[in-house]
Amino acid sequence: MLIERERLRGVYLNVLARLAEHHLLRAEYLRALYHGQRLLSRDPCREDGHRMVMVCHARLGQRAQAMSQYRLCREILRREFDAVPEPATEELFRQLRSGHELAPQREISQTSLVPYLGAPLEQIEGLAAVDRKHRDSGRHNGSSR
Fold this sequence. Notes:
- It holds the Pfam family BTAD.
- This is Bacterial transcriptional activator domain-containing protein.
- Helix 1 packs across helix 7 and helix 3 packs antiparallel against helix 4.
- This protein has one domain: Serine Threonine Protein Phosphatase 5, Tetratricopeptide repeat.
- The chain contains 7 helices and no strands.
- About 8% of the residues have low confidence.
- The protein is mainly α.
- The two termini are 19 Å apart.
């Protein structure tokens, strides 16, 4: 049972990541930010999620928040794993710090902000709908997650 729960947790986290990327590629930065933050609230060690949130803040003109997200990522990685951010995260931070324009969304996407799932977007959106329904039914029943 525990193995299945962990597998489903991994699928759920990847769905959140794919939804964030989906919205980022469509220049829906607030929606992408929402899903990126949900991803990080469930797994703060997901560096791809930190990059996604950094990009969203930058695209929304919130450079200071993007830089703060990098510092948070760096601190979490140091504390949890005694590790430093990946080169892709460091490069994104350098771009933000220098004030240079970020790469176009397609180029950012190809640098693996999100791990590949191999599932069609329709499946992912379907899983997200199930998640929303589950959360909504929990609220209506008076239970919490």
